[in-house]
Amino acid sequence: MKVLITGTSQGIGKAISEIFLDRGHEVIGIDRQESTISCEKYTHYVCDVRDYDNLPEVDDVEILINNAGTQNEADIDINLKALIHITEKYGVREGIKSILSIGSASAHTGAEFPEYCASKGGVLAYTKNVAMRVAKYGATCNSLDPGGVLTPLNECVINDPELWAEIMEETPLKRWATPEEIAEWAYFLTAVNGFCTGQSILVDGGESINYNFIWK
After folding, report:
1. pLDDT, block means (10 residues), the chain with 216 residues
2. In a domain? residue 168
3. If exposure means fewest CB atoms within 10 Å of the residue's CB, which of 67, 98, 132, 133 is most exposed?
4. CA 111 to each of CA 78, 120, 130, 159: distance values in angstroms, whole numbers, following the listed order
5. Is residue 216 part of a domain?
6. Cβ–Cβ under 8 Å, residues 30 and 49
7. Which among 167, 154, 155, 148 has a CA at the least distance from the CA of 205?
8. 215 part of a folded domain
9. Cα-Cα-Cα-Cα dihedral of 141, 122, 86, 9, to 10°?
10. CATH at residue 126
C-alpha cells in the first residue's frame, strides 16, 4: 500500500516508516529535517507541515499517519492545526483505507504543558470527526496515544537519574515503550485493523492510571 507519514526523520515516525518498508509497502515521508532512511521504496520531502503552500502533491494515499509533533514549540499550530490540514489534504477522500494520528496519554490526563495537552486533546475530538466522514469510504480513523517513549525528544529526563527514578515510580510497568513497540501498534491499527474506528488507543504502560506528570 501507499503510506504517507509525517515526522519520519527520528523517533516514532522513523520506526513506523521502517516497519512499513520492511513489510513491503511504499512510504512517503514529510519532515523538516533531511531523510535518515535509505530504501528504494521510500520517498522523502523536506517540508515543515505548517508550510501549507509547499506541501508535496501525493496522489492515491491509502494510509495516512500523522506523526509530526512538537512539545513547547507552537504546539497548537503543529500538533493540531497542521495535522488537520494534512488530514484534509491527503486523507479525507475516496481511496483512503486508514488514517492514524499519534496523540498522547496527556490528552486523557491533562498532565503536561497546557498547550501540548490542548493540542493533543484536540486530536482526540478531531479523530472522531474524521472517522465519521471517512466511514463512507470503508476507511478507519483512530489515534494512538503513547505515554513515555524512548526517543531523542525525551532525553532530558531519560538521562536525569533523579527524574527518571520519579517517572518510573509513576509507571506501573516500570519502563517506557520503544519506538518499535509504538510502530507495531501503528501498523496494526492501519494495515491490519479494518473495523475499530473513532477510537483513541492508550499505550502508556499504565502511566495514565497515576495522573502525575514529572518533567525537568
Report:
1. 98 98 98 96 98 97 97 93 98 98 94 93 98 98 97 92 93 96 98 98 89 72
2. yes
3. 132
4. 19, 12, 26, 21
5. no
6. yes
7. 148
8. no
9. -90
10. 3.40.50.720
Whole-angstrom CA distances from 160 to 11, 12, 66, 154, 156 are 19, 21, 30, 10, 7
Q: Within a domain: residue 123? A: yes
Scanning the structure block, which residue is given the C-alpha cell 516508516? 17
Helix crossing, 11-22 with 179-187: angle to 10°? 50
Closest CA to 182 of 154, 140, 161: 154
| Rounded distance between C-alpha atoms, residue 53 and residue 72, angstroms | 24
Domain with 47, as residue range(s), is: 2-210
Residue 131 CB contacts under 8 Å (≥ 6 apart), including other chains: 140, 141, 142, 197, 198
pTM of the model: 0.95
Concatenated DSSP letters for 69-105?
A: --SSSSHIIIIIIIHHHHIIIIISSTT--EEEEE--T
38, burial (CB in 10 Å: exposed 0-12, middle 13-18, buried 19+): exposed
C-alpha cell at 191: 494495515
Number of domains observed in the structure of the chain: 1
Torsion of CA 109, 129, 149, 202, to 10 degrees: 60
Collapsing DSSP states into helix, strand and coil, what is residue 18?
helix
Whole-angstrom CA distances from 50 to 16, 84, 92, 202 are: 21, 10, 18, 27
**Confidence at residue 211, expressed as pLDDT on a 0 to 100 scale:** 64
Max Cα separation, the chain? 51
